[in-house]
Design goal:
alpha/beta, D-Maltodextrin-Binding Protein, domain 2, 2 domains, three-stranded antiparallel β-sheet, 14 helices
Length: 329
């Protein structure tokens, strides 16, 4: 079993039997209920920036807590059902198909993934015609990107399997149980370090899309507007600091005692991960722009997840930019 699999197993063990983890104690004098952030995965190196922004928001008197769910789909349903307040994802297709009053309000990361194949079997997109590929989850950016490549290259996969966690998919590739998948930068480094020439990245071009955003119900965003604006301000502050000095994430993790039981291998990956993210423009300092919404819809439409936009796009059907605008002023 590879090191990253062991890391994930240890982290899962830490939260086994618990659904909700408060990042810190909620101040007794807090007047409002804590803002419950739903994550369809376990907290990891990739979520440290978000956790730092949550801590800083709490320092300004807005209580927050982090809730874990089995998948992004379940997390989205929790937002709709009122079991959580803010979700992590990019639920364009869900909004379009269900007409649910959900709105995104902050772009956490832009899409940067690495389609990878085992070169013992494949060496090009065309080789994947009639073959199985593995992605993160149904409706995720990983699925959308692989679907888009399917269309662009005139191929058809025999099946798409869903395996949450890029490090889990990378581990499966190292073991040989998965031969074609899509992973993040950290897991791609793992594959190249441990597998060498056995794994090859397939080319992608011209993709500008949201990987993860924050979203909530319109009612919640209106009712807690002032608190959410504070959160957005701290997100923008944190993202700007990380882009200027990626090493600060390791310092802030220690300062706020975040993920204290993170295995050593994962701790050592913090600075490389955020250095790469900053260099590749994965963490947008603007928090999102209206043109990003159009790009997202075009990307998802090409991947067959939403209807192709026609004419002027109703940005407000998917996003609430009032919060970002308030935080910028």
């Amino acid at each position: 079993m590879c090191g990253m699999i062991e890391i994930r197993s240890k982290l899962l063990g830490l939260i086994a039997g618990a659904v909700t983890l408060a990042v810190t104690e909620i101040p007794a004098q807090a007047q409002d209920a804590p803002i419950r952030v739903a994550m369809g995965d376990i907290a990891s190196v990739e979520s440290l920036g978000l956790l730092v922004a949550m801590e800083r928001t709490k320092e300004r008197g807005v209580p927050m807590e982090l809730t874990f769910f089995n998948s992004e789909d379940v997390a989205t349903q929790a937002i709709v059902g009122g079991q959580a307040d803010i979700g992590v994802g990019a639920p364009y297709a869900f909004i379009e198909n269900s007409q649910a009053p959900l709105r995104m309000f902050y772009r956490l990361s832009s899409l940067l993934f690495f389609p990878v194949v085992n070169t013992d079997y494949y060496s090009s997109w065309e080789d994947l015609d009639g073959q199985e590929v593995t992605v993160h989850s149904r409706g995720s950016g990983t699925e959308a990107l692989m679907r888009l490549m399917e269309q662009q290259h005139g191929i058809e996969y025999s099946a798409i399997s869903y395996v949450p966690g890029a490090e889990v998919r990378a581990g499966a590739m190292l073991q040989g149980t998965v031969k074609a998948s899509i992973v993040d930068s950290s897991s791609f480094r793992l594959l190249t370090e441990q597998g060498g020439d056995k794994f090859e990245r397939l080319p992608i071009e011209g993709v500008n899309a949201t990987d993860e955003a924050l979203y909530g119900s319109s009612d919640f965003l209106n009712e807690r507007e002032a608190d959410v604006v504070v959160f957005v301000e701290e997100l923008m502050r944190t993202w700007a600091e990380i882009n200027e000095n990626p090493e600060i994430v390791a310092e802030l993790r220690t300062q706020y005692d975040l993920l204290p039981d993170l295995p050593e291998d994962a701790v050592n990956d913090i600075v490389p991960y955020y250095t790469g993210a900053a260099q590749d423009g994965v963490l947008p300092v603007s928090g999102g722009e209206p043109e990003d919404v159009v790009d997202d819809l075009n990307f998802l439409a090409a991947a067959g997840q939403v209807d192709a936009p026609e004419g002027d796009v109703d940005i407000n059907a998917y996003w609430d930019f009032d919060l970002l605008n308030a935080a910028r002023n």
